[in-house]
Each structure stands twice: as structure tokens, then as C-alpha cells.
Design brief:
Blueprint: E1 25-28, H1 32-43, E2 48-51, H2 58-62, H3 72-75, H4 78-84, H5 100-115, E3 119-120, E4 124-130, E5 146-152, E6 155-161, E7 163-166, H6 185-188, E8 194-195, E9 212-216, H7 220-235, E10 240-244, H8 263-277, E11 281-284, E12 291-294, E13 298-301, E14 312-315, H9 344-347, H10 362-365, E15 372-374, H11 388-402, H12 406-410
Helix pairs in contact: 1-5, 1-11, 7-8
The structure holds flavin-adenine dinucleotide.
């Protein structure tokens, strides 16, 4: 069977100065969604390059020891599957749930190998602009190609593109420990005794075994960290685990349990509630952290209380998008979540907890800057419920549009599993 190629559409009119048809599309980030964008571009015969600041899927590799909650059937992009079917790739069992490592080794790496000539690793985008004009200039704006400034091992590089798909994620930009979301120097100075991701506790147990550890946060990352600590405590019983949350009741962090349409996600909450009940974990909630400082360990203070010092903190308070690279472009983000404006009302955790989102694509992701798109987990801003399946549909639609296939771009379809704890605010989701 031959790989299907749909011809590339002309991107700018013949009167314009640029006529940049020959320029490629730039994809920033070689995570699951950036790679999916690249595959769709390849399938449609649109030239492209991918810029990745680390190695392929660097962010997923940083949590490779974590087991996902969605089974393979939700984690593989359809175009990726089509492309890999021309290789000796073995498709994983759709019902099984991979670890981050398996996601990389059994899907993302094979995909990147097929795309390899067009992927530049160790290429960090530091800014995107229009060639020769800044954000203020409107005349002939869309006829100027994009210009990307890229830090490479050989110095600064300038690369031109006719369109840009920003799939840089949010995992690289964690929120701080303070409950008001402000990063202060006092916290930065304690970086050597704070983890901001889900640490591989088994691999570096000397940092945690028989120590006083506090986990801060109420989401899936915090629960993953706690479960790993409980496993350690079974071997090193003097490990003290404290869970600090802002929620009124710890039960609100347990999720939908057996009502969750992703069984593994529901199970996280069930397991942690058992360990809380059995006294493995000391819960302090609500506790709004106001101050952090070092004194026989790390001391956390709220307005009226001060906790005994901890040897180490695991801060899983969510992540935020980094818009620095976008500042020379015209883009919009919503005020609460910092998500792409049109999808923000659908995913704001103040209003929605279902974990699902209506189908959306190019139209909703369109920015004031023509041919510039923010996709993947970055499109969700600070909202925590992003799933790969959402991103795969986003980039399918965006690439269809860039290739001139407006019908395919508008025909968006998405069915996501819900968390089983749907509540609705003003614009409730279900
Ligand atoms: C622990 C954990 C478990 C998860 N489990 C699931 C699950 O079970 N199912 C599910 O559907 N989703 C899950 N997710 C959510 C989500 O699908 C993943 O976070 C996914 O990796 C997001 O993909 P992405 O491509 O948008 O971003 P990322 O995977 O974060 O990729 C972004 C890439 O961009 C690169 N980059 C960043 N800045 C630059 C720059 N300036 N220049 C060049 N490159 C840059 C990064 O190095 C990275 O490789 C999970 C997330 C986490 C953290």
C-alpha cells in the first residue's frame, strides 16, 4: 500500500511579496502532539521541520517511570498509526496501559525515527516573530514569513517558516508552592530540596527513605508522588509522608473512583483514599501556604500556622504555559486559565471537572496572528485535564486547514472518557 499524500495548498496569494509556498511549517516541540502535527503535515505533503529543545519527547521522558491512566487506544494518533504501518512497528494492545517509558519507546520514538530528517533536537526556540516587522506593524503583516530564533549547540540560528504550530507543552513551567501562585526568591533558593515533578523515588531513594517528606497539591501528579512514597515507606517505615492541600476536604481529591471512564485514573483516587484511611499519610487540609523558609529543613507557614520542618518537598501544584517565545506575535490567552481563548470556557476547572471537552480544532485555535497556532497541553494553559486524544484532533484539524482542506479542518470529532466527578458551575459541562 502506498502512503497517501494530499497535495500541499498554496499558502499566500501571488500578489504578496512573500509567496512563501516553498517555506516549510515550523512545529515547536517533539512531544506527542508536536510529533502528531508533523505526521499530519507529512501525510498531506506539506514540508515541515520540528524544533525540540531537548531530546525527542523530553517532557514525557521526565515522567517515564509513571504509569499513564489512559490505555493505548487513546494514546496513538491515527495518522501516526498509518505512517508506522509502513514500517515493522508492532502496534501495542489497545486495552493495555503504558508507562511513560513505554509510550516513548513503543510509539513516540518509532514515530520520530520515520520523521527523523525533519526533527532538530537540542534546538530551543527562544522567540518567534514576523521577518522584519514587530508585533505593532499591521501593513503586509501576513505576507511576511515567520522568523524563529533558535538556540542550537552551534549557536543562534534563524529559521523561516510559512506557519508555526507551538506544541511546547507546560510541563517545563511548574507552579510554585505558595498558594497565591507567586514565585519568590526564597523558594528558588531551596530548589535543591524541592521536586516540582513526579520524582523517580525508587531510583533516588536515599533522598526520601526515612525522611520527612511533604507532598503539596491535589491532582493526579500529587497522588502519583504519594503512592510512590507509600511504596517506599513499606520498606523504610520511618519515612514520614504529609499531604498538604488547599481543598476543604481531602475526599475532594479522590476523583470519580469506579465512575471514572478511565479505570486507571479512578483507581488512583481509590488507592490513595485507602492509604489515607490506614494512616500511611498525614493529611493537612485546607492549608494555604503563605511563607516558605529553611530552618532545620523546610518550614511552611500559613496565615496562622507553622508546620514542623520537612527534609524535602514534592510540589505538584500544576503547571503554567510559558508565553515568552510568543511575545513578538499577536496571540490571545484567556484571563483565568491562560488557555487559548475559545476553548478556555470549556475547560476551566472552576466550571468543569468532567475531564472531557467538546470537539474543537483550527477554528477555535485560530489566533489573531494568521497561520500561528498554540496546540496540545499548552492550548489548555493552566487547566489540568488535557488528554493526548484532544491534541491529536487539534493538530489534525489545524494541518488540514494549512493544507487547504477546509472541509476536513471543520469536521472535528472527539469522544473523551469522563472523570466521573462531573460538577457544573455556570456553564456546566454535563
Ligand atoms: C505524569 C503525567 C501523566 C499523564 N498521563 C496521561 C494519560 O494517561 N493520558 C493522556 O491522554 N494524557 C496524559 N497526560 C497529559 C498529556 O497528554 C501529556 O502531558 C502530553 O505529554 C502532552 O503533550 P504535548 O505534546 O502537548 O506536550 P509535551 O509532552 O510537554 O511536549 C512539549 C515538548 O516541547 C519541548 N519544548 C518546550 N519548549 C520548547 C522550546 N522553546 N523550543 C523547542 N522545544 C520546546 C519540550 O522539551 C517537550 O518535548 C499526562 C501528563 C503527565 C505529566
Amino acid at each position: 500500500m502506498e502512503f497517501k499524500i494530499i497535495q500541499q495548498a498554496v499558502c499566500c496569494d501571488s500578489k504578496s511579496a512573500c509567496c512563501e509556498q516553498e517555506l516549510p511549517v515550523a512545529v515547536i516541540g517533539a512531544g506527542p502532539i508536536g510529533l502528531a502535527a508533523a505526521v499530519h503535515l507529512k501525510e498531506r505533503g506539506v514540508s515541515f521541520f520540528v524544533l525540540e529543545k531537548g531530546e525527542v519527547s523530553a517532557n514525557v521522558r521526565s515522567w517515564e517511570h509513571v504509569t499513564l491512566f489512559s490505555p493505548w487506544q487513546y494514546n496513538i494518533d491515527e495518522a501516526g498509526k498509518r505512517l508506522l504501518s509502513y514500517t515493522d512497528w508492532q502496534e501495542p494492545d489497545g486495552e493495555k496501559i503504558p508507562t511513560g517509558k513505554e509510550l516513548v519507546e513503543s510509539y513516540l520514538l518509532p514515530l520520530s525515527e520515520v520523521l527523523a530528517p525533519n526533527i532538530y533536537t537540542n534546538h530551543e526556540v527562544i522567540s518567534i516573530t514576523r521577518d522584519g516587522i514587530d508585533r505593532m506593524k499591521s501593513t503586509n503583516r501576513s505576507s511576511q514569513p515567520f522568523l524563529l530564533y533558535v538556540e542550537t549547540p552551534n549557536g543562534l540560528k534563524e529559521m523561516k517558516a510559512k506557519a508555526v504550530i507551538d506544541a511546547t507543552g507546560t510541563w517545563g513551567n511548574p507552579n510554585p508552592v505558595k498558594s497565591n501562585g507567586v514565585w519568590l526568591r526564597t523558594e528558588k533558593e531551596l530548589a535543591s530540596i524541592i521536586d516540582y515533578h513526579i520524582p523517580n523515588i525508587e531510583a533516588s531513594k536515599n533522598l526520601y527513605a526515612n525522611k520527612r517528606i511533604a507532598v503539596i497539591g491535589g491532582g493526579h501528579s500529587a497522588i502519583n508522588s504519594l503512592l510512590n512514597l507509600v511504596a517506599l515507606k513499606e520498606k523504610y517505615p520511618n519515612t514520614s509522608i504529609t499531604w498538604i492541600l488547599r481543598k476543604k476536604r481531602v475526599e475532594d481529591a479522590f476523583g470519580g473512583g469506579s465512575n471514572d471512564e478511565l479505570a486507571a485514573r479512578g483507581e488512583l483516587g481509590v488507592r490513595i483514599s485507602d492509604f489515607v484511611r490506614d494512616g500511611y499519610i498525614n493529611v493537612i487540609t485546607p492549608f494555604l501556604i503563605k511563607r516558605i523558609h529553611k530552618q532545620n529543613g523546610v518550614v511552611l507557614e500559613s496565615q496562622h500556622n507553622k508546620l514542623e520542618p520537612f527534609d524535602r518537598l514534592i510540589v505538584n501544584t500544576g503547571n503554567r504555559p510559558n508565553y515568552e517565545i510568543n511575545r513578538a506575535l499577536r496571540f490571545e490567552r484567556e484571563a483565568i486559565t491562560e488557555a487559548v481563548s475559545a476553548i478556555a470556557p470549556l475547560i476551566d476547572p472552576n466550571e468543569h471537572s468532567c475531564g472531557s471537552v467538546p470537539a474543537h480544532g483550527e477554528k477555535e485555535l485560530r489566533q489573531p496572528e494568521p497561520n500561528f497556532y498554540i496546540v496540545g497541553s499548552k492550548s489548555y494553559g493552566r487547566a489540568p485535564t488535557f488528554l493526548m486524544a484532544t491534541g491529536y484532533e487539534q493538530v489534525r484539524s489545524v494541518v488540514a486547514y494549512l493544507a487547504g482542506d477546509k472541509e476536513a479542518a471543520e469536521n472535528v470529532q472527539l469522544q473523551l472518557p469522563e472523570t466521573g466527578v462531573c460538577h457544573s458551575g455556570a456553564g456546566g459541562c454535563c
